[in-house]
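Example record

The entry below shows one chain as it appears in the dataset: sequence first, then structure tokens.
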Amino acid sequence: MSLVSRRPRWYPALVWQLLKRAEIPLRVGAAITVAYLGYVLLARYTSDRRWAARQNNGQLSAEQNAKFAATYGGSAVKILQFYAREGSITDDQSTVICYGVVNAKSVRIEPAVAGVYPALNRCVDVSPQHDTKYTMTAEGSDGHTATAEFTLAVRPDLENRPRITSFEVVKHSLESGKHYFTIGFAFQNARTVMIDPPVFSTIEDSAPFGQWVVTPETSTTYTLTVMDKKGRKASRQLRVEVPQR
């Protein structure tokens, strides 16, 4: 029943009309107040949960350990999960390894991975450059251990690897009995250029193409090598034939 649905005999007519007109705003105001209080309580609960998670830092409390020990049978150390997010990656990608243990006082992963400690559910970053077998060892307080392993396949990222697209003599001339050869080159996905024999010194942050002139006395094989910022290389050889007199 509305607070103003039945007019008391003693209300003056003016007061009665004001309350009657205010009935809808009062209901709206009450609804807004209830919604706001609900939002505040939910926000505080969510904040408390996040704070507790940060404080716990992913590690199991003694009570949690006891519950999981009961669930998984006794107090022996156990590895609940150990896997990579992707089954395979390319050699310029990273992924995460996820794991979970109970009743463990220490945990390690080989090859060494940073940020590993006993936790029910935790993921850590890895960036292997080749196929890698990861082995996890969890040790319990009684000295017993549990192990698990898997292999993460790493595919070569051929599309983004350094490659030489051209390496050739673009011009040959004879001046005063001397042979001049203009050699041109072009490459992709690299920044460092080297030549052997050392016609020029190593070029850093090179443009992806260029030319140089050589005047060998005899036929010579030149080896061009380009390298990207990760140290990956590509090479190609060019034989410059000097005509016999």
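Notes for this example: The chain has two domains: 62-156, 161-240. Residues 1-5, 51-56 have pLDDT under 50 and may be disordered.
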